[in-house]
Amino acid sequence: MGRGKVHEPYNKFKGFLREKELTYSDVGKTLNISATAVLNKINGVSDFYVGEVKTLQSEYRMDLSVLF
User: Fold this and answer.
1) What distance in Å separates the CA atoms of residue 48 and residue 51, rounded to the nearest whole number?
2) How many C-beta neighbours within 10 Å does residue 30 have?
3) Cα 33 from Cα 35, distance rounded (Å)
4) Residue 61 region, left (φ>0) first, then alpha (ψ -120 to 50), else beta?
5) Which of 12, 5, 16 is nearest to 68 (CA)?
6) Mind listing the pLDDT tens digit for each residue in 52-67?
7) What is the DSSP letter of 66?
8) pLDDT at residue 5, as a whole number
9) How many CB atoms sit inside 10 A of residue 4's CB?
10) What percentage of the chain exceeds 70 in pLDDT?
């Protein structure tokens, strides 16, 4: 049996990454996690930690509305 979704996918964040030409691997390097972990977070299988959100906001000059 597969793992259920914790939340809806972050579709705005996916669009943001495409716009900035960033890969899940790029985000993973920024957060010190694997690209698979990033994929799981973006697709709703797991959550971003507050510290990760702050890092993304700072590193990519991202508005929080992309995630919320």
Assistant:
1) 8
2) 16
3) 7
4) left
5) 12
6) 999 999 999 999 998 8
7) G
8) 80
9) 7
10) 96
